[in-house]
């Protein structure tokens, strides 16, 4: 009714005039007769079926097409369902009838009818396993929607290509061939596979290829995959591997430097494994090897300029020409510098001058040297630095045995501790010099074979042991000095700056003593007598006279200190024995009891030893005092006595 009312309004017909026209058209028909005729003219439509409809009118302004389906109601279609061709009034079109809408208009669809007709056609002409052609329409979840003869079918992403495709949207709008792998009649769903069809075709190509392919053949292929170790090339049915080492005679960091995906290559067949169906390909083998005639172009000893292409911890690789590289070992980089890593001298891309040292053609290896391209400074060291030359250099490093002084860049000399001072006993070079100090030294020796230069600092001044010390110190002289160091064999006494004498333990007392600490202490001022001046061994022998100086009052009494030290040592020894005995006695109660008795006995004995040591120390103190009071009036006579005692002691 709504459609009729709309047409009345559209033609602007007066209702009374309309009634008159209807009555004229009806003639003598009664309402009963009209109903009978109308029922015969209107066909009964079954929902969810395809019916034939006639285009009644086309409204381009609203984009609607009014369709007469021959029923009680009319339906409308969108112009978009007709595609690019506009329908004409009176044209017959198949539509899908779904039933009546709430406003009593028919719900129809041309697109659905077309799809159903296409589905019926596809179902009647194709089965699972058949090959079909279609055009990829759009990307959907899990794959692509492909139009096959008007039916949208599903192409899973995993079935698009032989290899996993990163972006399947590249196939949209492209025609493809595929094979039907599933037909679901109930759901009107079809699944196809392009991969299955490609695999079948590839298998046929592979069988043909394996019959014809031979080693040393040159074939054309397409790059299908690029990996770090090489390139896979599709030869038509089977992929061959072009390893990175067979791509160029030169250095290739990554295959992508030479090829790209989809590129067509002409390659040489190197090896064919028919059982495993593997083919090794080569690109560089199409050209002659640069190692042919290598000895003629690079004879041993010849000098060349190359480019640093790679650095390793053990050396640098230098490119002499495309496909020819040599190794400059880290030991062949400098005559003088200690090179820890090649990057200290060169970097990638540097042009360097090298000398060919050795060639191994079979292994395709060349040993090169950088230092051989320059003069060896050690060959001229003996000429440039003769013995006795005074040089000036900076202290580059200190060791326990001396200091290394840089004479020139790359050449160091060793200043040994024994050559730092004529008189001072140097235990470590840091007592005299420090790193970075600039020193003057004398060349003592040059060893070009071992690449060593010995330096001396004390040799810059005259040796005081030749004239100065013998002329200044005589046997019998009484001197005062300070105890600097105490050892188990005696005492070192500082006589003047950088000069010490040795006071042997036998010269500390008239009787035998166990330790020098019984008589003297470090820092104590004492008076000594010179008993020997040894020029060859550079030593001054001393004998103890006395230590009665006021400045020694603040120091502990030597005898008491020695006694306490002895008592402390005895007590520690007793404690150690007690601990050892107690641990050993854990095995049985009897053993523990015996250990305890032993410990007590040791402690008692240690205590007795300590008391005896104190008594001995007291006696020594009295004897020292008596000796000091009875000092001889004549220094010469005393010197003779001391000299005689020294001689007898050494004898």
TrEMBL record:
Residues 642-651 have a biased composition (Basic and acidic residues). PROSITE patterns: S1 (PS50126). Residues 560-583, 601-651 are annotated as: Disordered. Pfam families: S1 (PF00575). GO terms for molecular function: mRNA binding; structural constituent of ribosome. Residues 129-195, 216-284, 301-371, 388-458, 476-545 form the S1 motif domain. InterPro entries: NA-bd_OB-fold (IPR012340), Ribos_protein_bS1-like (IPR050437), Ribosomal_protein_S1-like (IPR035104), S1_domain (IPR003029). The keyword Repeat applies. CDD domains: S1_RPS1_repeat_ec2_hs2, S1_RPS1_repeat_ec3. Residues 613-622 have a biased composition (Low complexity). GO terms for biological process: translation. Residues 623-641 have a biased composition (Acidic residues). GO terms for cellular component: cytosolic small ribosomal subunit. It comes from the Bacteria. Keywords: Repeat, Ribonucleoprotein, Ribosomal protein, RNA-binding. Binds mRNA; thus facilitating recognition of the initiation point. It is needed to translate mRNA with a short Shine-Dalgarno (SD) purine-rich sequence. Belongs to the bacterial ribosomal protein bS1 family. This is Small ribosomal subunit protein bS1. It comes from Rohdeia mirabilis. The lineage of its organism: Bacteria, Pseudomonadati, Planctomycetota, Planctomycetia, Planctomycetia incertae sedis. The gene is rpsA_3.
């Amino acid at each position: 009714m709504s459609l009729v009312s709309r047409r009345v309004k559209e033609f602007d017909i007066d209702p009374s005039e309309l009634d008159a026209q209807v009555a004229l058209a009806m003639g003598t028909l009664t309402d009963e007769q009209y109903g009978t005729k109308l029922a015969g003219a209107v066909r009964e439509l079954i929902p969810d079926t395809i019916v034939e409809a006639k285009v009644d009118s086309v409204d381009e302004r609203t984009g609607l097409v009014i369709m007469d389906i021959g029923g009680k109601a009319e339906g409308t279609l969108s112009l978009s369902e007709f595609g690019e061709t506009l329908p004409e009034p009176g044209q017959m079109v198949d539509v899908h009838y779904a039933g009546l809408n709430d406003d009593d208009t028919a719900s129809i669809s041309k697109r659905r009818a077309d799809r159903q007709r296409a589905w019926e056609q596809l179902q009647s002409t194709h089965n699972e396993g058949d090959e079909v052609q279609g055009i990829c329409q759009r990307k959907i979840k899990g794959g692509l929607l492909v139009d096959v003869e008007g039916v949208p079918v599903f192409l899973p992403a995993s079935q698009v290509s032989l290899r996993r495709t990163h972006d399947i949207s590249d196939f949209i709008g492209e025609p493809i061939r595929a094979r039907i792998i599933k037909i679901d009649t109930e759901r009107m769903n079809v699944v196809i596979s392009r991969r299955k069809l490609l695999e079948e075709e590839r298998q046929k190509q592979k069988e043909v290829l394996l019959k014809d392919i031979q080693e040393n053949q040159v074939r054309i292929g397409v790059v299908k995959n690029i990996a770090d170790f090489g390139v896979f090339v599709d030869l038509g049915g089977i992929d061959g591997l072009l390893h990175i080492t067979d791509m160029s005679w030169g250095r290739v960091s990554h295959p992508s430097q030479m090829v790209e995906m989809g590129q067509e290559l002409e390659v040489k067949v190197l090896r064919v494994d028919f059982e495993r169906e593997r083919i090794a390909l080569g690109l560089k083998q199409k050209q002659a090897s640069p190692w042919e005639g290598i000895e003629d172009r690079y004879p041993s000893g010849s000098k060349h300029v190359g480019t640093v292409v790679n650095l390793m911890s053990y050396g640098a690789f230098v490119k002499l020409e495309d496909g020819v590289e040599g190794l400059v070992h880290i030991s062949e980089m400098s005559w003088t510098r200690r090179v820890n890593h090649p990057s200290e001298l060169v970097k990638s891309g540097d042009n360097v001058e090298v000398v060919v040292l050795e060639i191994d053609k079979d292994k395709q290896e060349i040993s090169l040297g950088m230092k051989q391209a320059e003069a060896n400074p050690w060959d001229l060291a003996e000429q440039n630095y003769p013995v006795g030359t005074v040089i000036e250099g900076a202290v580059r490093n200190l060791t326990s045995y001396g200091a290394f002084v840089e004479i020139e860049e790359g050449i160091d000399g060793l200043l040994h501790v024994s050559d730092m001072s004529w008189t001072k006993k140097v235990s470590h070079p840091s007592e005299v010099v420090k790193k970075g100090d600039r020193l003057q030294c004398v060349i003592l020796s040059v060893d070009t074979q071992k690449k060593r230069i010995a330096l001396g600092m004390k040799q810059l001044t005259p040796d005081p042991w030749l004239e100065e010390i013998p002329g200044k110190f005589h046997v019998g002289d009484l001197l005062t000095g300070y105890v600097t160091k105490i050892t188990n064999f005696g005492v070192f006494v500082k006589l003047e700056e950088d000069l010490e004498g040795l006071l042997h333990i036998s010269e500390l007392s008239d009787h035998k003593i166990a330790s020098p600490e019984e008589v003297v202490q470090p820092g104590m001022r004492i008076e000594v007598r010179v008993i020997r001046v040894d020029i060859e061994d550079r030593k001054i022998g001393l004998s103890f006279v006395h230590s009665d100086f006021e400045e020694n009052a603040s120091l502990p009494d030597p005898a008491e200190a020695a006694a306490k030290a002895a008592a402390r040592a005895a007590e520690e020894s007793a404690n150690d024995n007690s601990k050892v005995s107690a641990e050993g006695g854990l095995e049985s109660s009897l053993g523990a009891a015996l250990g305890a008795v032993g410990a007590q006995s040791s402690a008692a004995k240690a205590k007795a030893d300590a008391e005896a040591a104190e008594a001995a120390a007291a006696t020594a103190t009295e004897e020292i005092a008596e000796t000091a009071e009875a000092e001889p009036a004549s220094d010469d006579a005393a010197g003779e006595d001391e000299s005689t005692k020294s001689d007898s002691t050494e004898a």
